[in-house]
Write a structure and sequence with these properties.
The longest helix is centred in the middle third of the chain and has 14 residues. The protein is an alpha/beta fold. The C terminus is likely disordered. Helix 1 runs parallel beside helix 2. It is globular. 19% of the residues lie in helices and 30% in strands. It has a domain of 94 residues: FAD/NAD(P)-binding domain. Flavin-adenine dinucleotide (FAD) binds next to helix 1 and strand 2.
């Protein structure tokens, strides 16, 4: 179902994986929204200093998180503060329920968070969903 929040791609979670997905979606000219329940950065925000990321001999976790975010934004990814509670497929669209009442919908969904089975309603095998291997969502 189309809504005023319709995007081509919804990405759940703005950790390194979600922000990378946002960057590539934007670079592919897809209108992407990254939904993050807290501040963008994920586990990077719990890491003071990173010394093993190629090209960065010494970078603060929050600093690298900001670089990831601005890089994704540069290519057009939109960020919203929203905790996703449920994702489901409705016709050709994926819809999310969020704790802030936002009802984003899109043609594709990437789950880059620890959303569990109970939050993802059963999806057909042909659904355009990517996500961690332990998730029920199949890879398109
Ligand atoms: C202490 C520590 C040190 C580390 N040090 C290094 C290091 O030096 N080098 C290295 O390469 N790796 C390091 N790692 C590993 C690295 O942090 C992780 O591999 C990386 O953060 C994983 O990224 P991710 O995007 O998959 O997940 P995460 O970083 O976990 O991001 C997931 C995001 O999804 C959000 N989210 C979750 N559920 C929802 C929901 N329902 N709705 C909306 N948003 C949601 C979370 O808030 C979070 O922002 C370290 C990890 C830890 C814990």
């Amino acid at each position: 179902m189309a809504t005023e929040y319709e995007h081509e791609v919804i990405i759940v979670g703005a950790g390194p994986a979600g922000m990378t997905a946002g960057m590539y979606a934007g670079r592919s000219m897809l209108k992407a929204v990254v939904l993050e329940r807290g501040a963008p950065g994920g586990e990077l925000l719990n890491t003071e200093v990173i010394e093993d990321y190629p090209g960065f001999e010494h970078v603060l976790g929050w600093e690298l998180a900001q670089k990831f975010e601005s890089h994704a934004r540069k290519f057009g990814a939109e960020f919203r503060t929203a905790g996703v509670t449920v994702v489901r497929k409705v016709g050709e669209m994926f819809e999310c329920e969020c704790d802030n009442g936002d009802p984003p919908a899109a043609h594709a969904l990437a789950v880059e968070s620890e959303l569990g089975r109970e939050e993802i309603e059963p999806l057909p095998d042909s659904s355009s969903v990517t996500g961690p291997a332990e998730q029920p969502a199949p890879v398109a």
